[in-house]
């Protein structure tokens, strides 16, 4: 009866942890054979029959029939007299098979079996979890926040497995409460002290790539390829894309109508500004596109040193560098060249202008895109046009334009 209880307990655990029947039967047999080896120093004369479907287990011992005077090991041999008590037809040299009840092993042995079984199942589940997530590195996940600590955040997947998002893998500005849903990619899977540690990330470039695949059908279908992504999480990112269909504008497809597609991604990334550029194998052209919205006069490349000298008009320099140097830093990361900016000619130095994209923390990205659509890439280019003219040429409300003008004027006061 106790063997049946053991099987039932294991079956319940199996249903919970999704362990296949063959593995379950193998673990059970192995646990009982270990017990037999400890009790009798051998398990070779025992047959263990596991029936997972019925939920029972049988242990049969096989002993050779010998004369009573020659009996040396009553675990391996049985006297002819005792054999005939079981069945009168037994003869010398034959083998007697008899079922061994669980009660014969004693209470301590049964308890040890239960403990060993629980330990083996736990180890098996840890290995299964490790292997499952090892194959899913780079995959996007939706998890439930369970606990938020100073250095990391504990989340659960849809099966209740524990995953971690360290503070270093969270976007600056991330703030989650218990019970909320968080998106992240599987970044790293390690086995530490025989326990799997699954690390998720929201700062990896692959996280941004998965979001683009989710929001842009052309990327998911393979019509547009993401060639490279560079990020400064929470601040700015540059994404180089290429289309395999000449009829598809990769940048326009990624941005969407009125920035609808990219706005969803920007919102997920805590208003991280995203520049989408057309990929090209021409390094000079790629550098020009990467430094957008600045207008480049000329580029001189040194392949040996992987350096690029970029010459611009004085009015374009601030846009090329960007707020806090983010634009030129990301452009260097995207192109693989160390970029140095040089002032062109001897023009009188003008008051530095500021690129509109540098106001993304105060102005919605889709509003900035609307201004860029009519050729206004910088703060001064917007301020030069009247509110009435901007209202006429864009799809923006007058109140929205007034607020943008106020923000831009503040920059120069």
Question: Would you kindly provide a brief summary of this structure?
Answer:
By secondary structure, this protein is an alpha+beta fold.
Give a written overview of the molecule:
- The chain is built from 15 helices and 15 strands.
- Helix 2 runs antiparallel to helix 4 (107-134) and helix 9 (283-290) packs antiparallel against helix 11.
- The protein folds into four domains: 2-132, 2-Layer Sandwich (N Utilization Substance Protein A, Chain:P, domain 4), CATH 3.30.1480; 136-201, OB fold (Dihydrolipoamide Acetyltransferase, E2P) (Beta Barrel), CATH 2.40.50; 214-343, 2-Layer Sandwich (GMP Synthetase, Chain A, domain 3); 356-412.
- Residues 346-350 have low confidence and may be disordered.
- With 413 residues, it is of the alpha+beta class.
- It is elongated, with a radius of gyration of 35 Å.
- Strands 7-6-5-8-9 form a five-stranded antiparallel sheet. Strands 1, 2, 3 and 4 form a four-stranded mixed sheet that branches. A three-stranded mixed sheet has the order 10-11-12, sandwiched between helices.
- It is found in: Cytoplasm.
- It comes from Mucinivorans hirudinis.
């Amino acid at each position: 009866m106790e063997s049946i209880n053991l099987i039932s307990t294991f079956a319940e655990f199996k249903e919970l942890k999704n362990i296949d029947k063959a593995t379950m039967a193998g673990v059970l047999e192995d646990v009982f054979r270990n017990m037999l080896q400890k009790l009798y120093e051998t398990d070779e004369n025992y047959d263990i029959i596991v029936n997972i479907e019925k939920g029972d287990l049988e242990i049969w011992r096989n002993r050779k029939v010998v004369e009573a005077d020659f009996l040396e090991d009553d675990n391996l041999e049985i006297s002819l007299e005792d054999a005939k008590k079981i069945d009168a037809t037994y003869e010398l040299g034959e083998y007697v098979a008899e079922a061994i009840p669980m009660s014969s092993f004693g209470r301590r042995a049964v308890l040890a079996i239960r403990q060993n079984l629980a330990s083996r199942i736990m180890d098996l589940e840890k290995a299964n979890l490790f292997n499952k997530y090892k194959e899913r590195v780079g995959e996007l996940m939706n998890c439930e926040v369970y606990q938020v600590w100073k250095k990391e955040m504990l989340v659960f997947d849809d099966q209740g497995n524990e995953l971690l998002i360290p503070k270093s893998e969270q976007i600056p500005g991330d703030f989650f409460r218990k019970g909320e849903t968080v998106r992240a990619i599987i970044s790293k899977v390690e086995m530490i002290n025989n326990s799997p540690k699954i690390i998720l990330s929201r700062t990896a470039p692959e996280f941004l790539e998965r979001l683009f695949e989710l929001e842009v059908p052309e990327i998911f279908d393979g019509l547009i390829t993401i060639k490279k992504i560079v990020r400064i999480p929470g601040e700015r990112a540059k994404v180089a894309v290429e289309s395999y269909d000449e009829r598809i504008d990769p940048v326009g497809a990624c941005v969407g109508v009125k920035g609808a597609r990219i706005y969803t991604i920007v919102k997920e990334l805590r208003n991280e500004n995203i520049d989408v550029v057309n990929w090209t194998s021409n390094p000079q052209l790629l550098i020009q596109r990467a430094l957008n919205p600045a207008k480049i006069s000329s580029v001189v490349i040194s392949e040996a040193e992987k350096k690029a000298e970029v010459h611009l008009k004085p009015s374009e320099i601030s846009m090329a560098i960007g707020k806090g140097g983010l634009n030129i830093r990301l452009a260097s990361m995207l192109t693989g060249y160390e970029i140095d900016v040089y002032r062109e000619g001897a023009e009188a130095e003008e008051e530095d202008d500021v690129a509109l994209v540098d106001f993304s923390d105060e102005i919605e990205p889709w509003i900035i895109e609307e201004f860029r659509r009519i050729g206004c890439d910088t703060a001064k280019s917007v301020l030069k046009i009247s509110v009435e003219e901007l209202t006429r040429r864009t799809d923006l409300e007058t109140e929205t334009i007034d607020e943008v003008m106020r923000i831009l004027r503040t920059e120069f006061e």
